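Quick one - inputs below.
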Amino acid sequence: MNPFVIAGVIGIAFGWTLERAGLGSAPKLAGQFYFTDLTVFKVMFSAIVTAMLGAFWLSRIGILDLSQVYIPETFLLPQLAGGLLFGVGFVVAGLCPGTSCVAAATGRGDGAMVMLGMFAGVLATGLAFAPLRNLYESTARGALTLPELLRVPAGIVVCAIVAMALIAFQFAERLEKRA
Amino acid sequence: MSTPRRYADPYLAGVCLGLVLLAAFVFAGRGLGASGAFASSAAGIVAAASPARAAANPYFARYLGGDGPWREWLLFEIAGVIVGGFLSALFAGRLRAAVERGPNISGRSRLAYAFGGGSVMGIGAVLARGCTSGLALTGGALLSAGAWLFMIAAFAGAYVFAPFVKRAWR
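Output:
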């Protein structure tokens, strides 16, 4: 099938799910960072756990060939620095790039402004790329995975992440009750 | 319009989102994303304004290969996100023209925060090679070490900075 049709269909399901969860609303997302509404964390980690378990088992039974799936590459310093900056921008904007598209699509002007800001930030950084290039390409580790980094079987890492998520969900519920 | 419906249970929505991500792995051989669509369209606009400048720029140049910046997978996916978000809100009675903000901030300030925060996210996403969707969510499920580093750093950055912008939300 045409890859762009697949992209469109997957995108529709992605946008639909984000909106259903309430992630098109900036004050709801921002609640994550004041411990009043942990929807961001709950949605994100149940999604990671689901897709992780699915990919793990589908590859075990031979339905999914993980060597054919693009694994985001690791660049330690730029991802540490970029992550910190991204987080600062996230709490100021109240939306991340994907959720800003949902907010804008449902009529929210703040969502459209986050999209515009995001575009301006990417454009400006791209135009001023020369001095950043050293940092950008530094500490490259290729398609490094946690099992490779920790030298333990993938199944152990998968189990540990599921256990951590389940414990963290309990904490999240308690924090919300207190808020 | 009737009153908006309640949001879905976050765990149920998360499981659905995980299945969407899994479907992307199986049917597209890749995960979800968002910031890449912004990067690709920025590359396309720079290339339209000045083809020589875009080709000489190592960041934009790689979006110009293949079928070009306007035939990037993530652009079609993000177009889908906009349609899907719109349809979901339509059926739930949540379509509303508004500027959403905290109780103690003006609409104009909120829009300035939105633009500023968006710009800073843009810088971070370029450096990190992805955002919450393409790196944290996708890479997280694929156990990418860099994705987990990014995720931890992003949450840390947001929590550390949150007290400074409390006025915007509380």
